Amino acid sequence: MSPDELKAHLDTLGWSSRHLARVLGIPQGTPANWTMGRYAVPPYVAAWLERWVKTCEQAMQRDPPPWKGNLPSWEAADARRMELNRRKPWQRQRHKRLLEQE
Fold first, then answer.
1. Who is most buried in 26, 49, 57, 73, counting CB within 10 A?
2. Within this chain, do residues 49 and 94 fall inside the same structural domain, yes or no?
3. Which pLDDT tens digit goes with each residue over 66-90?
4. What average pLDDT does the structure give for the chain?
């Protein structure tokens, strides 16, 4: 497994090299050395990671997150509130009036 493949697998899983070290019970520097190409990833670790990524991808296909593609209404409302709070005071008042008209 190349360093780029390892990084791609970690990215797919949402893991850092530190997290991989914790999961495997090895020093934190070891996966970091693998991602930098200083040392080769052991074949048994590479095989395990590939199985884990495949399992996670299959699980996501069978049961995708409910919000994929559409935000639930409460998240859309939160996004609107956050947008409103980023505005200057005079813009907030105008924006509130526009939201009330909707």
1. 49
2. no
3. 665 555 566 666 666 666 666 666 5
4. 79
Both 50 and 75 in one domain: the answer is: no
Domain count for the chain: 2
Does pTM surpass 0.70?
A: no
Enclosing domain of residue 91: 69-102
Q: What percent of the chain has pLDDT over 90?
A: 34
Do residues 76 and 43 both lie within one domain? no
- Nearest CA to 34 among 63, 8, 11, 1? 1
Same domain, 10 and 47: yes
